[in-house]
Amino acid sequence: NSVDQGIFQWSAPSNIALVKYWGKKENQIPANPSVSFTLNNCKTNTKLAFAKKADRNYFSFDLLFEGQPKEDFKPKIQKFFERVEIYLPFLKEYHFTIDTENTFPHSSGIASSASGMAALAMNLMSLEKALNPLMTDDYFYQKASLLARLGSGSACRSIKGQVVVWGTHQNITGSSNLFGVEFPNTIHENFTDYQDTILLVDKGEKQVSSTVGHELMHDHPFAERRFAQAHENLDKLITIFKTGDLEEFIKVVESEALTLHAMMMTSMPYFILMKPNTLEIINAIWKFRKATKIPVCFTLDAGANVHVLYPNKDKEKVLQFIQNELVGYCQNGQYLCDQIGNGAALI
Ligand code: PMV
């Protein structure tokens, strides 16, 4: 089957981990299982144009970010192509133009590696499907997640929605270290349209890249206990997703966020990735929750920004609280409203 040229276009969302992935082995194999909410609004849209080329001895691609050539992303894509070539043996037969844009401001400090790598992986799978039309949907999505993982670990959780598990866990059927899978059980209605408002506390360059961060877990004094704890927390979430117990949900999610930061504070070298305003926000959330009994909680990535998580039915009150009391802690008053979503989509 010969496919000489064409264009595909996919969007893929970001995701926010509830149980965090922090620490990995060879080949982007996670040291512990993680679980995330797929987001809906924070997305990367990527257009992949491809054309057959004569010389098949090298990878050939141009990269455009928001319509402009982007040389500094190229080494990452080159490395990605090298890693996935064994799974996509046709890569060197084509010249690619990768045209990509994010729906969130690029200076927001929101990592676009998850959504970006997931969108690219979907496009490459569309080309593979054009070459091998008989593949099943299951194979298509599973392999897209596997490819995304090789681009950036957490990207494998951005292919599907709404709750995705990555990493082998004894009580989650079908879970794998190689790709993300949809959480297999029915999820309680308390989590329907769950909200994530992302408070942009510090939009600067990441102090610690996730590559360096994962490496810090190698000789980390608490690593083994932490990896075991992630399994325990995932077990707790299995129950929580069944019962809808938001009080327990809050405990697991906030503890995971603080543990992620605790790992960075106790590694060698050590880092503090929160800013004073991160702590101000956490304290304000705790105070608001105590006063109103509204089950709002926070989680954090490997940075200072705060994800505020809450049920859809409390949206009005929480947004009012955010506007009145939290916006002042955000850089230029910036925040992004998002919610749980369904994963990558063909455009
Ligand atoms: O996908 P990476 O290698 O950028 O790692 C991301 C790690 C965290 O965002 C901090 C946690 C997670 O599980 O998403």
From TrEMBL:
Transmembrane segments: none annotated. SUPFAM superfamilies: GHMP Kinase, C-terminal domain, Ribosomal protein S5 domain 2-like. GO terms for biological process: isopentenyl diphosphate biosynthetic process, mevalonate pathway. One of its GO terms (cellular component) is cytosol. InterPro entries: GHMP_kinase_C_sf (IPR036554), Mev_decarb (IPR005935), Mev_diP_decarb (IPR029765), MVD-like_N (IPR053859), Mvd1_C (IPR041431), Ribosomal_Su5_D2-typ_SF (IPR020568), Ribsml_uS5_D2-typ_fold_subgr (IPR014721). Its EC number is 4.1.1.33. Keywords: ATP-binding, Lipid biosynthesis, Lipid metabolism, Lyase, Nucleotide-binding. Residues 12-171 form the Diphosphomevalonate decarboxylase-like N-terminal domain. GO terms for molecular function: ATP binding; diphosphomevalonate decarboxylase activity. The keyword NAD does not apply. Pfam families: MDD_C, MVD-like_N. Residues 198-326 form the Mvd1 C-terminal domain. It comes from the Bacteria. PANTHER family: DIPHOSPHOMEVALONATE DECARBOXYLASE. Belongs to the diphosphomevalonate decarboxylase family. This is diphosphomevalonate decarboxylase.
